[in-house]
């Protein structure tokens, strides 16, 4: 028991067999009796093949329609089409960046990057969100000038090209949903929002074309463009907010820290839980670390195993670092 009391017992579970060294404090933790395993839920979000296929299909479709709408916008003099083609150029870059992020995520961890390159997906999603803001800004600025002198637009040709673009966008979105994980992978979701933004742009161009064809109101072109830009901004803000939260190591929105603390403190023999940290490494991979102060004569391994199982079953977190402490353990108070 002396050896157990003078050392910190940890349970560390990690992805691809790589050891993690996430450090939350100024003091060093000694390690004893490591047990490496994966929980029963697995890490299905990290199979990149489906994400890669979905992104590749969407990229090919997007590039093709981008050229169609660009030249179509020049011929028809439609801002809605030109703005949508500009959005598609941005989307093509974003999809390519997302593909690179998926490739980086498959690279193995190294001694100086113990979590590997999974965070690159979060960075790619953040960049995609920022570029959506930029594209929407350009659309609004261009539309402003057209409010005062709306140019004549070949509405029939514009609607035909927009319909083709809409079908292509639906196909791109379908490939991302079918092949990839747009719900849990924020990188793929940001790419998916880009494609949905394209679809909105195509719908806007079709509506504007109908209004101009029936009523001759050419001001409908910049009005619809601004409405589409505002919808794009709304989606972009959600992506930026989420990615910044992850990069700031905020608690996952699906986990309540107070509930985690209560569950762990309800284990027989546990006095209190402190230095509790819950954060996200990348989409689908949450991590937790904490210190458990237990009664001196309790079985620390029993408590450790029970804590690991409870966290995995109740909160779906398999990557845990739990430090067992007794009354003889003393360390400085955390500064965060």
From TrEMBL:
Signal peptide: none annotated. Residues 15-47 are annotated as: Disordered. Pfam families: Cation_efflux, ZT_dimer. It is found in: Membrane. The chain crosses the membrane at residues 55-80, 92-110, 122-141, 153-174, 195-217, 223-240. Keywords: Ion transport, Membrane, Transmembrane, Transmembrane helix, Transport. Residues 258-326 form the Cation efflux protein cytoplasmic domain. Its main location: membrane. Residues 55-248 form the Cation efflux protein transmembrane domain. InterPro entries: Cation_efflux (IPR002524), Cation_efflux_CTD (IPR027470), Cation_efflux_CTD_sf (IPR036837), Cation_efflux_TM (IPR058533), Cation_efflux_TMD_sf (IPR027469), CDF/SLC30A (IPR050681). Residues 15-38 have a biased composition (Basic and acidic residues). Gene3D superfamilies: Cation efflux protein transmembrane domain. The keyword Membrane applies. It is a multi-pass membrane protein. Belongs to the cation diffusion facilitator (CDF) transporter (TC 2.A.4) family. SLC30A subfamily. PANTHER family: CATION EFFLUX PROTEIN/ ZINC TRANSPORTER, RE54080P-RELATED. This is Cadmium, cobalt and zinc/H(+)-K(+) antiporter. The lineage of its organism: Bacteria, Bacillati, Bacillota, Bacilli, Bacillales.
């Amino acid at each position: 028991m002396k050896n157990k009391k003078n050392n910190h017992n940890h349970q560390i579970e990690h992805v691809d067999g790589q050891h993690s060294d996430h450090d939350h404090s100024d003091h060093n933790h000694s390690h004893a009796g490591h047990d490496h395993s994966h929980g029963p839920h697995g890490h299905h979000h990290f199979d990149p093949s489906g994400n890669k296929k979905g992104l590749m299909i969407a990229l090919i479709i997007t590039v093709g329609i981008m050229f169609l709408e660009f030249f179509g916008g020049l011929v028809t003099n439609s801002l809605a089409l030109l703005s949508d083609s500009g959005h598609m150029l941005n989307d093509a870059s974003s999809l390519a960046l997302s593909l690179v992020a998926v490739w980086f995520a498959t690279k193995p961890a190294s001694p100086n990057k113990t979590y590997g390159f999974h965070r690159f997906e979060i960075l790619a999603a953040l960049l995609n969100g920022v570029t959506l803001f930029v594209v929407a800004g350009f659309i609004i600025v261009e539309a402003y000038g057209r409010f005062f002198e709306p140019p004549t637009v070949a509405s029939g040709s514009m609607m035909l090209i927009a319909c083709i673009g809409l079908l292509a966008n639906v196909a791109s979105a379908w490939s991302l949903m079918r092949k990839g994980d747009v719900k849990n992978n924020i990188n793929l979701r940001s790419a998916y929002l880009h494609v949905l933004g394209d679809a909105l742009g195509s719908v806007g161009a079709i509506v504007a074309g109908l209004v101009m064809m029936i009523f001759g109101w050419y001001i409908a072109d910049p009005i619809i463009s601004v409405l589409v830009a505002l919808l794009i901004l709304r989606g972009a803000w959600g992506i930026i907010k989420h990615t910044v939260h992850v990069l700031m190591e905020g608690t996952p929105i699906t986990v309540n820290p107070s509930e985690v603390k209560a569950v762990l403190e309800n284990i027989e023999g546990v006095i209190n839980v402190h230095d509790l940290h819950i954060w996200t490494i990348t989409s689908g991979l949450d991590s937790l670390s904490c210190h458990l102060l237990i009664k001196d004569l309790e079985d620390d391994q029993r408590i450790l195993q029970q804590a690991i199982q409870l966290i995995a079953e109740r909160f779906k977190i398999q990557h845990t670092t739990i430090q067992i402490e007794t009354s003889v353990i003393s360390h400085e108070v955390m500064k965060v």
